[in-house]
Amino acid sequence: MFDAHCHIGIPSAQAIVCSSEPGEYDQLQAYRYHAYGLLRPADRDVDTLEQRLFADRGAMIGEFGLDCRWETDERLVERLLCLARDLDRPFVLHVVHRHDRILRLIKQVGTKSCFIVHGFTSSRQTALSYMRLGGTISLSPRSLASRDFRKLLDLGFLLESDLPLSGESLKVLDSLYESVAAAMSISRERLEERINVTGSVFTA
Predict the structure, then answer these.
(1) Which tens digits make up the pLDDT trace of 64-120?
(2) Which residues contact 178 (CB under 8 A, 6 or more apart)?
(3) Strand intervals (E) in the chain
(4) Residue 148: inside a domain, yes or no?
(5) Measured between alpha carbons, how far is residue 3 from residues 12, 173, 177, 195 in Å?
(6) Residue 37's CATH number
(7) Are the CB atoms for 182 and 153 separated by under 8 Å?
(8) Is the dihedral of CA 71, 75, 81, 87 positive or negative?
(9) Would you say residue 140 has pLDDT above 80?
(10) How many domains does the chain divide into?
(11) Residue 159: inside a domain, yes or no?
């Protein structure tokens, strides 16, 4: 199994470990695939993240984005998108009911990098909009209850726990793999092959 979006916990090479603020950055070096993120960015935090990216050339950026539950300065989100573009780094987006605004920013900035929209629960149409810009959706356990869940399963996607890496996150991820394989009427092994092919874009 590959976990496309989780948080700091036990070491693993089968996961993309994301952070949300600078206090977590020092712990990321323990993980092969890791991303420096800012959920609630300030200018000084973007400066810190930029310094980390220059020092750590294999790192991704994320998670960051827009969330209807709190105010975020779109100028700083745009700055992070510009960093991803200029450094050609994959990035991980956190988006809650702000997909139109994030899509507008990505189109405005332009991107050379692949990216993940994590915890995706929106529509097939929105997923296709991200895919046209180089994005891949990642489904979490919450995605199972979304209205368009089954309509997403013929698209390229990843699966995630969105939990700190632990025995519990592995159980959650295992259950998610089983549920998605059943919904697709394919074997668990075939689903894992498909996920591994998609995930290799971000972890090669």
Answers:
(1) 999 998 888 899 999 999 999 999 999 999 999 999 999 999 999 998 889 999 999
(2) 188
(3) 3-6, 15-18, 33-36, 60-67, 91-96, 115-117, 135-139, 157-159
(4) yes
(5) 10, 7, 10, 10
(6) 3.20.20.140
(7) no
(8) negative
(9) yes
(10) 1
(11) yes
Q: Cβ contacts of residue 163 below 8 Å, gap of 6+?
A: 6, 7, 9, 169, 172
* C-alpha to C-alpha distances, 127 to 11, 83, 178, nearest whole angstrom: 31, 23, 22
H-run or E-run covering 53: helix 43-55
Whether residue 98 contacts residue 66, with contact meaning beta carbons closer than 8 Å, is answered with yes
Give the whole-number percent of the chain exceeding pLDDT 70. 100
Residue 204 in domain: no
| Residues spanned by the domain of 190 | 3-199
pTM for the model: 0.95
* CB-CB neighbours of 40 under 10 Å: 14
Which is more confident, 200 or 128?
128
Give residue for tokens 């996607």: 157
Q: What is the pLDDT of residue 204?
A: 72
Question: What is the per-residue pLDDT for 33?
Answer: 96
